[in-house]
């Protein structure tokens, strides 16, 4: 590793998420309409900027994001999301462009880029469609753009036809300014070391469940069903995977209620002869927390104000400290199963104890 000048690093999700939020907040200073597409990607509307000024405007965005966060970004500008992705790809790969490429209104430039772009790399195509298109002799984005509508509709449906329209410059994918209400939620980890301890497995599942419950409350959702899954290492012999599901009598985001169901499922999945390497919790049947159907058979009342205030207080205190000092006993305290993070960089922006030290 040293001979190749490589450095080993563990994942640092807390830092990634916080820096992503800072980048997105900076982007919102430059456009009234911003769609956060993923942790490292966003779409902005630049209709308020004169066409001839958009390249300079994009360069300014890039410079300010770098100044505020230290993170270099690349920007592609075009009539549609799909073409903007194409422009962004080349802006990132071509040093001479200095991270910015505007192909709006330049059909010749668009066709040039599409002719050099493998069809499998078009946003939304993927490996399955990519293989089918290559089998048909359509190996570039330009060739896909030139296919007749009836053929695209027959082989790729409406979704594929939308992609082709986007490649031609017709805007078919408007900005989604408000996140879609999710239908499921999963928290899962590969353990730092495999375990044969029932207690450690239950601690992991309880930790994942509590994390899921916090996310539900943050997004004002409740879950109607819960799934727990476990597995051994797929790189060892006698690979084991199993899962169990249960439906809640009353949809809930109440941590103790979800813990009770999750731990009952964990007991069903336990096997003495398995060395567990991974586990996870999936919450499904998510609905708005204001839409709940009560059950006369359930002890938990989602309208109980004391329970709601308790959850809100726990969330607030844990968020303020950033280190989750208040935990349910079943989550344990040692966390021997957790990812080791031996090579993780410091969480500079979310942990007081890991703040960088400046000596003057």
From TrEMBL:
* GO CC terms: cytosol
Tell me yes or no: is Transmembrane among this UniProt entry's keywords.
no
Name the PROSITE patterns for this protein.
UMUC (PS50173)
Q: Which GO terms describe its biological process?
A: DNA repair; error-prone translesion synthesis; SOS response
The UmuC domain sits at 1-126
Superkingdom is Bacteria
Similarity comment: Belongs to the DNA polymerase type-Y family.
Q: Which InterPro entries match?
A: DNA/RNA_pol_sf, DNA_pol_Y-fam_lit_finger_sf, DNA_pol_Y-fam_little_finger, DNA_polymerase-Y, DUF4113, Rev_trsase/Diguanyl_cyclase, UmuC
Q: Which Pfam families match?
A: DUF4113, IMS, IMS_C
Which keywords belong to this entry? Answer: DNA damage, DNA repair, SOS mutagenesis, SOS response
Please spell out the taxonomic lineage of the organism that makes this protein: Bacteria, Bacillati, Cyanobacteriota, Cyanophyceae, Chroococcidiopsidales
UniProt GO molecular function? damaged DNA binding; DNA-directed DNA polymerase activity
Per its record, how is this protein called by name? UmuC protein
């Amino acid at each position: 590793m040293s001979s190749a000048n490589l450095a080993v690093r563990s994942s640092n999700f807390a830092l990634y998420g916080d820096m992503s939020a800072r980048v997105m907040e900076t982007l919102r200073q430059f456009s009234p309409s911003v769609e956060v597409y993923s942790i490292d990607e966003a779409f902005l509307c630049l209709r308020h900027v004169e066409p001839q000024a958009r390249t300079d405007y994009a360069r300014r965005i890039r410079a300010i994001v770098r100044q505020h966060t230290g993170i270099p970004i690349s920007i592609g500008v075009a009539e549609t999301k799909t073409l903007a992705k194409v422009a962004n790809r080349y802006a990132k790969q071509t040093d001479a462009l200095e991270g910015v490429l505007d192909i709006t209104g330049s059909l010749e430039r668009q066709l040039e880029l599409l002719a050099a772009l493998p069809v499998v790399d078009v946003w939304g195509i993927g490996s399955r469609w990519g293989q089918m298109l290559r089998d048909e002799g359509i190996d570039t984005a330009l060739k896909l753009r030139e296919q007749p509508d009836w053929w695209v509709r027959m082989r790729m449906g409406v979704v594929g036809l939308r992609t082709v329209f986007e490649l031609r410059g017709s805007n078919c994918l408007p900005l989604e300014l408000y996140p879609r209400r999710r239908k499921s939620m999963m928290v899962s980890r590969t353990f730092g070391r495999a375990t044969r301890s029932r207690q450690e497995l239950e601690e992991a599942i309880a930790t994942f469940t509590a994390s899921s419950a916090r996310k539900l409350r943050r997004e004002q959702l409740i879950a109607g069903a819960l799934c727990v899954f476990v597995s051994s290492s797929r790189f060892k012999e006698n690979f084991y995977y199993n899962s169990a599901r249960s439906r809640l009598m009353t949809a809930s985001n109440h941590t103790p209620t979800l813990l009770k169901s999750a731990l009952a499922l964990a007991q069903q999945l336990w096997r003495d002869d398995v060395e567990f390497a991974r586990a996870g919790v999936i919450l499904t049947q998510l609905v708005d927390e204001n839409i709940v159907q009560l059950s006369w058979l359930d002890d938990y009342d989602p309208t109980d104000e004391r329970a709601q205030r308790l959850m809100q207080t726990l969330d607030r205190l844990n968020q303020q400290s950033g280190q989750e000092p208040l935990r349910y006993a079943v989550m344990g305290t040692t966390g021997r199963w957790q990812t080791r993070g031996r090579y993780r960089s410091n969480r500079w922006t979310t942990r007081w104890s890991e703040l960088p030290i400046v000596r003057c």
